[in-house]
Amino acid sequence: MSIKNMIAERAAQELDEHSVINLGIGIPTLVANYLDKEKYYLHTENGLLGVTSISEEDIDPNIVNAGKQPVGEATGASYFHSADSFAMIRGGHVDVAILGVLQVDETGRVANWAIPGKDIIGVGGAMDLLVGAKKVIITTNHTAKDGSPKFLKECTYPVTSTRKIDMIITELAVFERKDDKFELIELMGDATLEEIAEKTEADYVVSDALNRSVKS
């Protein structure tokens, strides 16, 4: 299994049945492939509630998500204007948003819309989702392409929102924000505590349960 799919599969385990979920661009879109389309309601900000997946056998080339990827349509899906879709987000009717990031800092703020001096896709609906979604999960590679940490003491790129995210899932680790501090609650794959410490700039605590399991 690829790193991206491993992260997406782990993120799917955090979702409650019959919840409304918005999947961001990149790794988040893969989460749909690990969900029963009859038990989850996937939302896209361009105006569809009832997205299924981006797998080849399930897509309709005439239907796209917010990232312009062809997607599938669940039975009973609902279409609406993008203004109504954003009203759903801003009104608190999205239970979980799963987003990718460029950076995330130890306070829980994320940067995922701009790299100064470079032309990238832009903010999209991330600003609204960070404010309006009841829970926000970040799915990302643990480091950037140059090997530098993406989980930092403080974001160096423009932040998307002051909203603090709830969970970070990478190919190395799962962090959950508890009492305004991130706690390492799970190792992914063959990752070690030493490797995570080496590749993470942010301060975090290791859960007692994880410490005990590693030592045993």
TrEMBL record:
Transferase found in the keyword field: yes
Listed InterPro entries: 3-oxoacid_CoA-transf_B (IPR012791), CoA_trans_fam_I (IPR004165), NagB/RpiA_transferase-like (IPR037171)
NCBIfam families in alphabetical order: pcaJ_scoB_fam
UniProt-recorded name of the protein: 3-oxoacid CoA-transferase
Keywords noted in UniProt: Transferase
Molecular functions (GO terms): succinyl-CoA:3-oxo-acid CoA-transferase activity
Species this chain originates from: Jeotgalicoccus coquinae
Origin superkingdom: Bacteria
EC number: 2.8.3.5
Family per record: Belongs to the 3-oxoacid CoA-transferase subunit B family.
